[in-house]
Amino acid sequence: MTFITFSLNQFNLPAYQVKDARYTTLGVWLITDISRQFLVCLDGLAMIDDVAAGRAPFEEWSSDKFEVEFTQQGVLLQNQWLEHQRGEYTVDEVRDALESYWRYLVSLPERELIREYRPDLPEWQAALLRWEEKWGLTHPYRGRLF
């Protein structure tokens, strides 16, 4: 189900396109709260995997932009700055969007950044190792999406 696509805008930041305006809040959440941060995307993927498997998320979502509630019934997004920007989505919709967004981020050319942690690896691989080290867990998408 491809209901959302991604590109870079003129400022080299992620942008989204949706076929149905119902997915606008989901798109805004992905490009602002996650942006180009692999570690944050890895958190979202792990949380959606938890609720899809009937477990509580391993951690609460922490953000200064959105309140996010991951449950087995779905995901609720509420922009903390724009009261009218709210969305409720199924677990499948959010999982599809997060997986698509991860693939999009990985497809982008490497940024010219000086990285301290594992600069010998592509940024996404270094982020995966760092995520697993931080949480002391094997990421649930290891072997499936990466």
Explain how this protein is built:
It contains four helices and five strands, in the order E-E-H-H-E-E-E-H-H. The protein is an alpha+beta fold and 146 residues long. It has one domain (4-135).
Distance between the termini: 20 Å
Main sheet: strands, sense, barrel: 3 strands, antiparallel
Give the neighbour order of strands across the main sheet. Answer: 3-4-5
Shape: globular
Structure classification: alpha+beta
| Element pattern in H and E | EEHHEEEHH
Mean pLDDT across all residues, rounded?
A: 95
Helical stretch tally = 4
**Beta strand %:** 15-25%
Number of domains: 1
Secondary structure topology:
Elements: E1 4-8, E2 14-18, H1 24-34, H2 38-52, E3 66-71, E4 74-79, E5 86-89, H3 91-107, H4 123-135
Antiparallel strand pairs: 1-2, 3-4, 4-5
Q: Descriptors for this entry?
A:
two-stranded antiparallel ribbon; 4 helices; about 40% helix; three-stranded antiparallel sheet; single chain; alpha+beta; about 150 residues
In summary, what is this structure?
Helices cover 38% and strands 18% of the residues. The protein is an alpha+beta fold and 146 residues long.
